[in-house]
C-alpha cells in the first residue's frame, strides 16, 4: 500500500498527505525551467484579415481568432471604443495598429501567442494600469475561447466547470482538456482512446469494444455533455467531429444537476470558422480498416456574419477479435449567424450510426487466472457470428445563443434535442463448466430508445462592489427524457468450447417479455459568483433541483405505473490565490446528488445518493510559455448507497458508503513549435467503507489504484527532414479488482504507442501504432465470467490533404 495509502487512514493522515503532496507539487513546478523563443519571431508573416469596423471588443475578438493569438486587455479601457477594422493581407502588427487606430491604445507581445492591449499611464489617469501590467480582476482574453479551437496541446480556458469563459487556473477543481491537436496526433478512434493520457481517468476498463465507458476517481463517469447539455444517454460522438474534450473531476451537480460524484466529460463539436477550411482524409490499417473523412468550413458572407462547418466520416474495420468488426457513418453540420455586433447563434446537428459485432469478454480462468487447459486466446469470440449483432444510431439538433446586452451583461440559451436507438441480438457468458473449457451461454435481445430535450438559460453579469469584482451567473435549466426498452433475456443457445470453438449452435430467442417505459423531468435553478480581490479568487455556487420519474411496464396488462419525486440542494465553494509566477494554490468543496429508483421493505422510496468532496491542489500556467501543470489531492465520499437489508433478505437499505481518496498530477506542454509533452499520474484508494454485505472494506471492480502515462512528440522544422515528426507514449495501469469481494484481480499492464508523420506542402502522412509490442492484457474484469480484453496491436495510416 505504501505511505500514501496508510496516511489516508484518518483525518490526521489526510492532512499529512495534503501537505506532502502540495510541497511535492510546488517543488516539481518550481523546478521547471524552459527558455522561450523570440516573442515576435513570426510576426513578419502576413495573414489575410477580415475584421469589420465596429465595437473595439468585437474587432479584437475577430483579430484574435484570425491571428491565432490571445488578446488581453482591461475591460474598462475598451468600453465605448470603436475600431475601423481591417480587410486584406497584413502582418499581425500592421493589423493591430489599424484596429487600434483612433482609440489611444497601444499593444505589446508578452510571448509568441499573447498580445496585451494597454492604455498609456499619462492618458489613463490615476486609474490606468502601469505599462505592461494587467490587473487579474478585470482581464479580458480573446483568441482562444472556452468553446473554440486551441493551438497546440495546451488549452488556457474552459467552460465545463463554470459555464463561463474562465481561465483554467482560476477554476478550483481539477480540469483537463484534450485538444484537437492531441486527438489528431494520436488519431484516436473513440472516447476512451481520447482520454487514455488524461490524469485521473481509467479509460479502458471496458476493453477495446466499449465506446463510452470510462471511470474517474474510483467511480463511473458522471455523465457526458454535448456542447454544454446532457442529451447523450448511451453514445459518444466520433472524435473526428470534436474540437475539444474536457474532463472536470469531482462533483458537478451545482451546475448540472444529478450525476455521479466522479466528474463529467464535456464534448465540444467543431464550430464554423472565420477562415476558409478544407480537409479530406483517407485512412487504412490492419484488420481490414478503411475509411474516409472530410471537414469544410469558412465564411458564407464577406463580413463574417454567416459562417458554416460541415464534417463527415465513413469507416469500417475489425479490431483483432475473431468475427468482430464495425462500420460507422458520421455527419455533422453547423451554421453561425451574427445578426448584430452583440448577438451570435450557432445551430448544429450531429448524426452517427454504428453497426458492430461486440464481444462480452472472456472467463477469468484462462485469462487472468490459471486454467489447466492453458490460456484462452485473447482474440476468442464467445458469441455466434450469424446471430450476434448490434447497431447504435443517434441524431442531435440544437443551438447555442449568446447576446451581449452590454459590456457587462451576457445572456445565453443552449437548447438540444436528441434521439438515440441501441439494438442488440447477442450471446452472453454464464459460466464455465467443470472441465473449465466449456462455456455455458445465454441468448438475449434488447431494443432501447431514448428521446431527450434539454434547455439551459443563463444570465452572466460582471460587476464591482467596492474592492470586489464579480462574475455572477444565474441559470435555469430543464431536461426531459423518455426511454423505452423492450427485451427478452430468456434465450437459449448451446455451450461453446473456448479452446476449440465450433460455431453454428441453434439459437432460440422467445418473444419480448420485459419492457419498462420511463418519463423523467429534471428542473434546476442555480447561482454562481466568481469573486476576485486583488490576487484572491473565490468561487461560490448553489443549486436546487427537482427530479420526477414515472415508470410503466408496457407488458403488464394493468399498466402499473411507479412514480418517484426527489429534490436536492447542492453547493460548491473554492478559494485560490494567483502568484506572479502563474502558480495558483487552491482548496475547494463540492457535493452532488443522484436519484435512485426503488423502495425499502416498507415501501419508502430510496433517497438520492449524495457525494461530498474536499480537494486541494496547485495549478501552474506561466504567461511566457505554453505549459500547464496541475497537482491535486482529494477526499470523496459517495453516500446513501444501497446495501443488503439484514432484516429482510432480498431487499435493500441505504446505509452504504464508498470512500475514494487520492492524488493526481498532470502536465501538458507545447514548449516550442517542435515539441509536445503530456504526463499524468493518479493514485486512487477507493473502498467500500459502510456496508451490510461481505464487500465491506473491498475495492470497487475495475478501479486500479495507480494509472500513469507519458507522451512526447517532436517535429523537425528545418533542413532536409523539415516536416518529419516522431512521437510515442507509454501507459501503465495497475491491477484492479475483478469482483465485488476482491477474490481475484486483473493484472497490471503497460502499453506502448508510437507515431510518425510527415508534412509537405498541404499534405500530411501519419502512421499510428497502438500497443506497439502487442502486449496481451485485460482492461478490467466485472465478474468471473467477464474479463474485457485490451486492444491488440493496431496500425492506422492516414493521409490528409488541406487547402
Describe this structure in words.
The chain is mostly beta strands. It has 2 domains: 43-143, 3-Layer(bab) Sandwich (Phage tail protein beta-alpha-beta fold), CATH 3.55.50; 277-718 and 726-762 and 770-802, Maltoporin, Chain A (Beta Barrel), CATH 2.40.170. 9% of the residues lie in helices and 53% in strands. It contains 9 helices and 45 strands. A hairpin with a 5-residue loop joins strand 31 (561-577) and strand 32 (583-594). Helix 3 runs antiparallel to helix 5 (92-99).
Helix content: under 10%
Instruction: Kindly name the structural category.
Output: mainly beta
Mean pLDDT: 88
- Strand segment count: 45
Q: Proportion of β residues?
A: over 45%
Q: Give the N-terminus to C-terminus distance in angstroms.
A: 55 Å
Q: Largest sheet, described in full?
A: 22 strands, antiparallel, barrel
Overall outline = globular
CATH architecture of the largest domain: Beta Barrel
**Cα radius of gyration in angstroms:** 27 Å
Q: For this structure, what is the CATH class of the largest domain? A: Mainly Beta
Which terms summarize this structure?
803 residues; Phage tail protein beta-alpha-beta fold; 2 domains; 22-stranded antiparallel β-barrel; four-stranded mixed beta sheet; 9% helix; globular; receptor; Iron complex outermembrane receptor protein
Put the structure in a nutshell.
The protein is mainly beta. It is built from nine helices and 45 strands.
Amino acid at each position: 500500500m505504501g505511505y500514501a495509502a496508510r496516511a489516508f487512514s484518518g483525518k490526521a493522515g489526510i492532512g499529512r498527505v495534503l501537505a506532502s503532496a502540495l510541497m511535492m507539487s510546488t517543488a516539481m513546478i518550481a523546478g521547471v525551467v524552459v527558455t522561450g523563443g523570440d516573442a515576435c519571431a513570426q510576426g513578419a508573416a502576413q495573414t489575410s484579415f477580415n475584421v469589420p469596423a465596429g465595437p473595439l471588443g468585437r474587432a479584437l475578438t475577430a483579430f484574435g481568432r484570425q491571428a491565432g493569438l490571445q488578446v488581453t486587455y482591461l475591460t474598462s479601457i475598451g468600453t465605448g471604443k470603436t475600431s475601423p477594422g481591417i480587410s486584406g493581407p497584413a502582418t499581425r502588427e500592421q493589423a493591430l495598429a489599424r484596429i487600434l487606430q483612433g482609440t489611444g491604445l497601444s499593444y505589446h507581445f508578452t510571448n509568441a501567442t499573447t498580445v496585451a492591449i494597454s492604455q498609456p499611464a499619462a492618458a489613463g489617469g490615476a486609474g490606468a494600469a502601469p505599462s505592461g501590467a494587467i490587473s487579474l480582476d478585470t482581464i479580458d482574453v480573446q483568441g482562444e475561447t472556452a468553446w473554440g479551437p486551441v493551438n497546440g496541446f495546451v488549452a488556457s480556458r474552459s467552460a465545463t466547470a463554470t459555464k463561463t469563459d474562465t481561465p483554467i487556473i482560476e477554476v478550483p477543481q481539477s480540469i483537463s482538456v484534450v485538444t484537437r491537436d492531441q486527438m489528431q496526433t494520436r488519431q484516436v478512434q473513440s472516447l476512451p482512446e481520447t482520454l487514455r493520457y488524461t490524469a485521473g481517468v481509467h479509460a479502458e476498463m471496458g476493453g477495446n469494444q466499449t465506446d463510452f465507458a470510462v471511470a474517474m476517481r474510483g467511480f463511473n463517469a458522471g455523465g457526458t455533455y454535448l456542447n454544454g447539455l446532457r442529451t447523450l444517454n448511451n453514445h459518444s460522438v466520433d472524435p473526428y467531429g470534436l474540437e475539444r474534450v474536457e474532463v472536470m473531476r469531482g462533483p458537478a451537480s451545482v451546475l448540472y444537476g444529478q450525476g455521479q460524484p466522479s466528474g463529467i466529460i464535456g464534448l465540444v463539436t467543431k464550430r464554423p470558422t472565420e477562415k476558409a477550411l478544407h480537409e479530406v482524409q483517407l485512412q487504412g490499417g490492419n484488420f481490414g480498416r478503411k475509411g474516409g473523412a472530410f471537414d469544410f468550413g469558412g465564411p458564407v458572407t464577406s463580413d463574417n456574419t454567416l459562417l458554416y462547418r460541415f464534417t463527415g466520416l465513413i469507416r469500417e474495420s475489425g479490431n483483432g477479435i475473431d468475427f468482430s468488426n464495425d462500420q460507422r457513418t458520421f455527419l455533422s453540420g453547423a451554421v453561425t449567424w451574427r445578426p448584430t455586433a452583440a448577438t451570435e447563434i450557432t445551430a448544429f446537428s450531429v448524426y452517427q450510426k454504428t453497426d458492430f459485432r461486440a464481444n462480452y469478454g472472456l472467463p477469468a480462468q484462462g485469462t487472468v487466472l490459471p486454467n489447466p487447459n492453458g490460456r484462452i486466446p485473447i482474440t476468442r469470440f464467445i458469441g455466434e457470428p450469424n446471430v450476434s449483432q448490434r447497431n447504435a444510431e443517434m441524431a442531435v439538433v440544437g443551438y447555442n445563443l449568446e447576446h451581449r446586452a452590454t459590456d457587462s451583461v451576457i445572456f445565453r440559451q443552449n437548447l438540444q434535442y436528441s434521439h438515440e436507438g441501441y439494438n442488440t441480438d447477442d450471446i452472453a457468458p454464464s459460466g464455465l463448466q467443470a472441465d473449465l473449457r466449456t462455456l455455458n451461454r445465454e441468448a438475449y435481445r434488447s431494443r432501447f430508445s431514448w428521446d431527450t430535450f434539454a434547455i439551459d438559460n443563463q444570465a452572466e453579469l460582471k460587476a464591482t462592489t467596492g474592492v470586489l469584482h464579480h462574475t455572477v451567473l444565474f441559470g435555469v435549466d430543464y431536461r426531459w427524457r423518455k426511454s423505452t426498452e423492450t427485451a427478452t433475456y430468456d434465450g437459449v443457445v448451446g455451450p461453446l468450447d473456448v479452446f476449440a470453438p465450433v460455431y453454428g449452435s441453434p439459437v432460440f430467442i422467445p418473444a419480448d417479455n420485459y419492457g419498462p417505459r420511463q418519463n423523467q423531468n429534471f428542473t434546476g435553478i442555480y447561482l454562481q459568483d466568481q469573486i476576485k480581490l486583488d490576487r484572491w479568487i473565490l468561487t461560490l455556487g448553489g443549486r436546487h433541483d427537482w427530479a420526477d420519474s414515472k415508470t410503466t411496464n408496457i407488458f403488464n396488462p394493468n399498466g402499473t405505473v411507479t412514480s418517484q419525486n426527489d429534490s436536492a440542494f447542492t453547493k460548491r465553494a473554492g478559494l485560490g490565490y494567483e502568484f506572479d509566477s502563474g502558480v495558483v494554490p487552491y482548496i475547494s468543496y463540492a457535493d452532488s446528488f443522484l436519484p435512485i429508483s426503488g423502495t425499502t421493505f416498507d415501501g419508502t422510496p430510496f433517497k438520492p445518493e449524495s457525494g461530498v468532496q474536499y480537494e486541494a491542489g496547485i495549478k501552474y500556467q506561466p504567461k511566457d510559455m505554453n505549459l500547464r501543470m496541475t497537482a491535486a489531492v482529494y477526499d470523496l465520499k459517495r453516500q446513501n448507497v444501497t446495501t443488503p437489508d439484514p432484516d429482510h433478505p432480498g431487499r435493500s437499505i441505504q446505509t452504504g458508503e464508498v470512500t475514494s481518496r487520492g492524488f493526481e498530477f498532470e502536465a501538458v506542454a507545447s514548449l516550442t513549435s517542435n515539441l509536445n509533452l503530456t504526463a499524468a499520474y493518479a493514485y486512487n484508494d477507493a473502498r467500500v467503507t459502510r456496508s451490510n454485505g461481505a464487500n465491506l472494506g473491498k475495492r470497487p471492480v475495475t478501479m486500479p489504484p495507480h494509472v500513469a502515462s507519458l507522451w512526447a512528440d517532436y517535429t523537425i522544422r528545418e533542413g532536409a527532414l523539415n516536416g518529419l515528426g516522431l512521437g510515442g507514449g507509454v501507459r501503465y495501469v495497475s491491477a484492479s479488482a475483478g469482483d465485488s469481494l476482491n477474490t481475484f484481480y486483473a493484472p497490471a499492464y503497460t502499453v506502448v504507442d508510437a507515431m510518425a508523420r510527415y508534412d509537405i506542402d498541404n499534405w500530411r502522412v501519419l502512421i499510428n501504432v497502438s500497443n506497439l509490442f502487442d502486449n496481451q492484457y485485460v482492461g478490467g474484469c466485472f465478474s468471473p465470467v467477464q474479463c474485457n480484453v485490451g486492444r491488440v496491436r493496431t496500425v492506422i495510416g492516414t493521409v490528409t490533404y488541406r487547402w
